[in-house]
Write the structure tokens for this entry.
Amino acid sequence: MKKSALLTLTSLVQGQNRLHFTLSAKDLAANKDLKILDKAEVELVALRSGDKLLLEGAIDFRVEINCAICAETFVKNYSAPVHAEYIKQNPRLGRSILLTSDEIDRSYFQSETIDLLPLFHDIILLAIPIAPTCREECKGICPNCGVNLNYETCRCEKAATKA
Ligand SMILES: [Zn+2]
Ligand SMILES: [Zn+2]
């Protein structure tokens, strides 16, 4: 995989750094289930304090997905928040000692370079709902005649209530 989201800690100044990444669908290992259109744009503020790095920002992207109710393909824009912390770890220390669980994505790294691609990939996947719908209230497909009730009306329901 092409690495397009590498970050070198020493290239950042102490304090605030503005970062921008452009990710292609290929970078994000998009596939049949994850159809990313155009490019994903990542805007970040990286706050460096010593060997600690706090990332705050957002990933803007467009995906082509299928409605969970009517199965129609639609395109949706998302802006997924990034909230992550990277801490440089002494290789001699065990991972388990430092692992904590709270609301922040915390990762540990040992070399000077951090690959942010796995983080971005996870954030994008989590931003897309498990059962996305094409509109607020998708009317779905008529189980009887098969028309998409968002665009057409059929007589099935009326007939059923009359009967
Ligand atoms: Zn739908
Ligand atoms: Zn019908």
Notes: The radius of gyration is 22 Å. Residues 6-132 form one domain.
